[in-house]
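Chapter review: from sequence to fold.
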Amino acid sequence: MHSYDEPVYLISVVAKVLNIHPQTLRQYEREGLVEPSRTQGRMRLYSQRDIDRIKLILRLTRDLGVNLAGVDIIMQLKEKIDAMQEEIDSLREQLKIENSSSTIPSHRAVVTKNNYEIIIFEEE
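The token string follows.
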């Protein structure tokens, strides 16, 4: 089995699996929405992560009516949110270590809140 980030799928395979034209995938690449890997012969290879990203792009454009400029903004914001969440998780872990290794009065302790994720609901 291949890893999630390993580029193994040719453009024709991805287009067939997602029921789209290969030109659509080329357009997404030109727009900077997806960056497939390239072989030495310059053939595009997509990973499962790329395919999942394309599925999200298709969901936004087909089902929610977002244009490609909007998709680009949404994807950039999602990446920033993900990076910030990683930083928050790291800081929480550091805080947990600090709290367990020293005595901090309870009135100065940090209260943690629930994490939130972007969820796109499907209409049925």
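Two observations follow directly from the output. The first strand starts at residue 9 and ends at 10. The mean pLDDT is 87.
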